[in-house]
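Bench notes, afternoon.
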Amino acid sequence: MTTSTRPSRYLLAAMAFAGVLSAQSALADTTWHWSYSGVAIDASGTFVTSDTADASGFYEITAITGTRNGEAITALYPAGSAIPGNEPYAVDNLIRVGAQGQITVHGFGFATASGYTNPYYADFLATPGYMEVFTTTSSFAEVPITFSASPVPEPTAATLLLAGLGALGLAGFARRRAG
């Protein structure tokens, strides 16, 4: 092995290490698993939220995937929009970690092929809990649901550091083996 190839291997190893460490900053959004159910209702999927919580600990839902009663979710309603048939109540698309009150009294909104849905936290009930409003062009239903959501764990800085050190070790092993 010539000395001119050694610096390039070190450079590649250093670039790999830096890339692994900087990968954490590229993970600007958080993915959550969510689900809820009620009488004749079964909905689940994933959310993508901003990575920064507001002062109350809520994260803004920016994207949604999943199904409600077997139908694919086709759209997330923008924050500030009212679910058709449930005006004037507007969704805020906020969620936080916790057992109760994970979503706000405004909840989040999404559409399926057959209607519009707004799960929310009903803190005004004698026993606060979750509710779902589901509307179509000809119907309106509001029923209690059981709701849960949790963020998907992301790689920690320590995991990323170990991966970077592993890349450096692999580069050193390849250098020794070639040399």
